[in-house]
Specification:
Blueprint (H helix, E strand, L loop, with lengths): L7 H35 L42
């Protein structure tokens, strides 16, 4: 139920400053976000192609071949016995 003495023009006039303030705050937020995204895009590192790695040819590969880094041990590790 609405009160019988409502006057939309009078209410709009009373709230005009508040509505303008909210619109300015929203506009400031959008400008702030766009500035932030633009700054992130401007300071992003350039895309560089990855270094060319020597890939083995398909005739050099067998089923089950795995590239093992050179620092990895070639012998399997022995499991440790944990005393209880």
């Amino acid at each position: 139920m609405t009160p019988p003495d409502t006057n939309p023009q009078k209410q709009a006039k009373r709230h005009r400053i508040v509505l303008i303030g909210m619109a300015l705050v929203a506009l400031f937020g959008v400008i702030l976000i766009l500035t932030w995204v633009g700054e992130e895009a401007a300071t992003a590192p350039e895309d560089q192609p990855p270094p060319a790695a020597s890939q083995p040819q398909s005739d050099e590969l067998d089923d089950g071949d795995v590239d093992v880094p050179p620092q990895e041990p070639e012998a399997p590790a022995e499991p440790e016995v944990v005393p209880e």
